[in-house]
Batch of 4 targets.
Target 1
Amino acid sequence: MSYSIAVIPGDGTGPEVVNEGLKVLTAAAVQAGFTYELNRYDFGGERYLRTGETLPDSAVEELKQHNAILLGAIGHPDVPPGVLEQGVLLKIRFALDQYINLRPVRLISGVETPIKGKGPKEIDYCVVRENSGGMYTGMGGNSRPGTKDEVAIQEMVYTYDQVARCLRFAFDYARKHGKKARGLGPDNTLALIGKSNVLTHMYKLWNRVFAEIGDQEFPDVKREYYHVDATCLYMVVSPEMFDVMVVENMFGDIITDLGAITQGGLGVAAGGNINPDGVSMFEPIGGTAPMWTGKNAINPLAAIGAVQMMLEYLGEIEAASLVEKGIAHAVSKMKSMTANEMGMGTDAVGDLVAEFVAKG
Ligand code: IPM
Ligand code: MN
């Protein structure tokens, strides 16, 4: 097979971690016998400051011509908050209709979690975050701005189709990758996370479609429901109760950061923005870490994990599993997952994974 992959290294430490990810991709390709071509794009803060351009419409069309996109990080201290997030990251998610944000929360053996008494057996679930709707649609506005009568409205918007396609993806994911499918428990379980006791309109829709699709198409998948506030509590005190979770966009944004810290932090957490029928984008979720930029101090394992997810998604399962083992190998040699405390440089971590993968 041959793939064309768009690479957006972005800002801050994005380029450094993406380099390590690509190092590992090179090794994986040799092992698994596939080839690829890379197209690099310079979207991000530097380009915006130079040209005033975030992501031109022509780029959207170009990105669509690839098999996958690998993203580093977007954000710049000299650019007002929101400009790059909306102009690059959210624009790609929306324009390419990447309506799922897939965030595995898995504690790798040897990685420290801040949760006392919990290990890789307990912290092993996946969040399916809706990635196209909710409060992220940008509907609303401010009237009489700057006065005491100012009204601010930011609406949470979902259509039936958005809810149905997200739930269908989540059910299917639970069926294929749930704890039963992985030999780790008696059931594949999908938990809908919401706030049906307050957002009654919203969860009338979500709950109904959840039951409908579950009954009709996925009777083999066990269903649960939890309020999002309680979920935060359970994610800390009993993460083992989760298998696959499905959650709307804004709540998903919040709980996936909580999940990330329980799996060892932003140095290791990766995610995918998925369009099951289109082009998907994979990213370390850590951000630009301006403090560590150019210091060879940032942890690249999240970016390497993003490459692993990309390989899985491309169907290169063997290569993905090699990368996963390579990451575990690197972890066993590292002092910490925290930037500047790893006991080695960014490049050395990438080398460890790449060398492991190269040995097959
Ligand atoms: C994430 C990020 C983005 C989000 C920001 C950067 C727009 O926090 O991927 O979780 O809110 O979705
Ligand atoms: Mn977030």
Target 2
Amino acid sequence: MKTIIGLEIHVQLATATKLFCGCSTDYQDDEPNTHCCPVCLGLPGALPRLNRKAVEYGLRVAKALDMRVLEESTFARKNYFYPDLAKAYQVTQDDKPLAVEGIVEIEDDEGHEKIIRITRAHLEEDPGRLVHVAGGSKYSLVDYNRSGIPLLEIVTEPDMRSPQEARRFLNKLRTILEYLEVFDGDREGGLRVDANISIEGSARVEVKNISSYKGVEKALTFEVTRQRNMIRRGQTVARETRHFMEGRGITTSSRGKEEAHDYRYFPDPDLGPLHVADRVADIDLPELPTARKDRFMEQYGASANHARTLTGDPRLADFYEEVAHVDPALAATWVADTLLGELNYRDMNITAVPPGHIIELLELLKIGTITDRAGVQVLRTLLDACVEGRPCETPAAIVEREGLGKTAGDEFTPIVRAVVAANPQAVEDYRSGKEGALNFLVGQVMKETRGRADPRELRKIVSESIRVDGV
Ligand code: ZN
Ligand code: MN
């Protein structure tokens, strides 16, 4: 039973002002209804003026996704009533969108390259936001700060075959949007997804408005299971719209009156047609993720995995290129594996880390002043300070203060002797040929030395000391 998934993605374009008026889009920390004017409140007689920047951003995306920009595209009114839609219509694009026929490359479930086709991309305005008051109030509130924020709606062909593929597609798309600098990935609700999903031969279900893009894989996984189970039991999957309940991880049926679609699209008489196809040639695109990944493999000798991880976020890729000169391979491992893991654990952003500090850490590791284990400790100490907003101590200072420098074997001799004396059984086991006993003893010594010693060196010291004692 083949799974068929197509997505519609609403991307908030990171322009400074709204799509049809001069209201600022930077409302996240402000009171409700403080970024509004007659245009985005839909007051009678107010006239829209199209935001040049939003069109330019749309064209950048179109070019990056290899799309064809239409010679003429038009704006239409999509009529429906909802309290968050002040004008009772949304200005969008219908039969003549900005661009059509693009592609995004991803990896399929077997790790092979796969093309996801993009059907179209069009500009439209975001509606306002309903705020449901907690505590069972009879009222809902409405905030029009979001009303009129420019959206680019990107629609794919039904080319994805699993929820995991859908996640990989969204990750890739999001990375491209971040490289293009048309989208703020940190903004909540900046990317919202509707998913169409069916099992081949059965009806298609639409899951609406998945607001966290991490929720998409969860919502789709739930739907695949639900639909497959129904088919297995001989039931018919109904063609319907469902809502994803993020907290419970399930979708529920939502056949309401407003779902009976008859939007009566008609051309917006206040907005003329757009003729922007000839502008595409003048757009300079930055190096995009796939090209950068290939370059990282070639220029720095990074593995495919490291290159993909490092280029998955433009800021991480920039960071890596700043520190790579110390030792590209060492830097790739430490940035893509260790540093990224520690950052995720702390919910920290790469921008909080001073590259100079990581350069110094890599140098200490490279010349062998500290062991890998001590390096991790230094990194953790460093990040804990960054996260608390204290001035970041340098790695060398941390090594000095905490005495983490690699020391000559001699210093550990008393510790080794003490451990050997305290564990006669393990010593006996090792002498009678049980290699595992040596690991245990080395582990004990490591614990006492707080990771300062090089484990390989320590193995030698411990095994020699046992042999000497045995003579
Ligand atoms: Zn406005
Ligand atoms: Mn839309």
Target 3
Amino acid sequence: MNEISMKAYAKINLCLDVLGKQANGYHQVEMVMQQVDLYDVVTVKCNPMKKKKNDVQITDPIVVTASRNDLPVGETNLAYKAAKLMQETYKQDSEIYIHLEKNIPVAAGLAGGSADGAAVLLALSQLWHLHLELQELMELGVQLGADVPFCIMGQAKKMQNLQLRGKEWASTCAFAEGIGEKLTPLPPLDCLVLLSKPSIDVSTAVVYNGLCLEDIKSHPDTKELILGLKEKNLRKIQKNMINVLETVTLRDYLLVAEMKQYMENFETAYQVLMSGSGPTIFALYTNRKKARLAYINSKKKSNETYLIRTLS
Ligand code: ATP
């Protein structure tokens, strides 16, 4: 087998807190991340490396294509970066072809790029029969981005026949600390998720740069939210679904604030929150009829609207 196709799942943040800024400029965060059943399909194919001329590689051995033509597919694509990192780390002599069937909205706060990068790491470790430890792959993944280890952990949970040691530890829901890379598995939340991306792109870096820690009035009690997940106590979860990055994104992007207000006005969800640095807003439902009605209305506001489930 020299080809593998896998699902690269999006995530939402059930809460996101920023505790401070590290000396290296990264923010220290605490968040609960949950994967949802919205995914890109990532296909990775390996061929033996073509002969080199005078030891110089003639063409780039990594080729990425995507179903969206507005996505850069060169060296800046996280799938490309992941393949390069694997080549450099495990020194395999192969050409790598990657195709991304994009369904996750881009620059949306849903970790679409990180999920694709994670999928490439998992796919190549499988195709090259590396028999790595899950932790080892996650440590490699953080070099690509803070959300990549979580994406690896969640995707590993959903992959059958995965040749990865320590995969019993994998989970689609986790508590994330540090810059988001220190992960503790949690019992996943089981509910419907309505998510809608207003038609603007928001840069994660710009939002973090605009954050003023002193201005944050309300922080989540992350410990209580975690307890809520363990006890399946919706009230404890709902009460602590707070994302401190809303203080920047909702203030600076009117369209995002309007979308949140719009979804809250249905008064049918048990909570409405922004995911990551935005602009995607999501609402959690336990009742399918109410969720469906809210979906039909939200779809009128934004084409990139989905009604899906959390992943367990
Ligand atoms: P996060 O929540 O991790 O900050 P995001 O959902 O906000 O991620 P992405 O969809 O990952 O954002 O896209 C952020 C930027 O990364 C975009 O500007 C996009 O051009 C670039 N990018 C690189 N590779 C990919 C990829 N495979 N899929 C989507 N975007 C990618």
Target 4
Amino acid sequence: MHAVLEEIKKTGIIPVIKIDDAAKAAPLARALIAGGIPCAEITFRTAQAEEAISRIHGEVPEILLGAGTVLTTEQADRAIAAGAKFVVSPGFNPRVVSHCIEKGIPITPGCCTPTDIERALELGLEAVKFFPAEQAGGLEYIKAVAAPYTNISFIPTGGINAHNIVKYITFDKVIACGGSWMAGADLINAGEFDKITALCREAIFNLLGFGLAHVGINAENEKATVKIADRFSALFGFQNKAGVSSIFSSDCIEIIKSSSIGKNGRIAIGTNSVFRAMAYLERQGVEFNKEGVKTDANGNVTSVFFREEIGGFAIHLVQNK
Ligand code: 3PG
């Protein structure tokens, strides 16, 4: 997948922005980053779009910047010259799509029928915007329409919010969701950047779905491990599940036969997406222990430890079931 699409996939959310005053562009970009979303699609729905892209590109270069509602090749050129790294359009315009391909810039045109999708495939696209997602039939429709196609991903946009994003993003053919809910034109015009940051945080935490998965107890040896597991089983009726290096007492308690990490034990934090959670936490300064990484059959990370301990506990991320 194109590096820009990989970055979009890591973040999982594309704020769709309508900006009336380019002077608000850089503070807006900083508000999105502060809320954990280092990505923005500035739409050509206002005359200020090009200037807004240019200002964000100059003043907040760390944001992944795209141009949206690109309806003509001329708008695409202006967006690219101003610093956009990806282009989005509401529908499938073959001229605009081909032009962006020639320019080497990723474009995700709006598609919502098999015919649209096959046009995109014909031109070699890897991902399309699915628009308008909720109104066109939501996730069930996407699943049905995506079923025949194995090599195209979707960015549902339209009617997505902080709550329904979770069901979309947990479908593996969805790389990200777009939407205007966290940075609406009214909030931008009113300069309510703290509110935008708070809405971004709500969205990103819902998307990542952090929660306690299980706690790990360090036992001294195999005998001690069995004794602890049996005690939980006797008292609470928990089923023991023996693994190679530990016994799980129910899904919530792991007794580890011997451990070199975690003074007091370990805490597993579940997330809807370990790779997105890693990208988010790395932006917050968290470092991961690359050695103990577990992956599934497709190479997706399913468990990874932090380098730091918190309160004497080793912390690791695990994939929510
Ligand atoms: C778009 O331009 O992509 C949509 O208008 C965004 O849809 P939303 O406003 O429902 O989030």
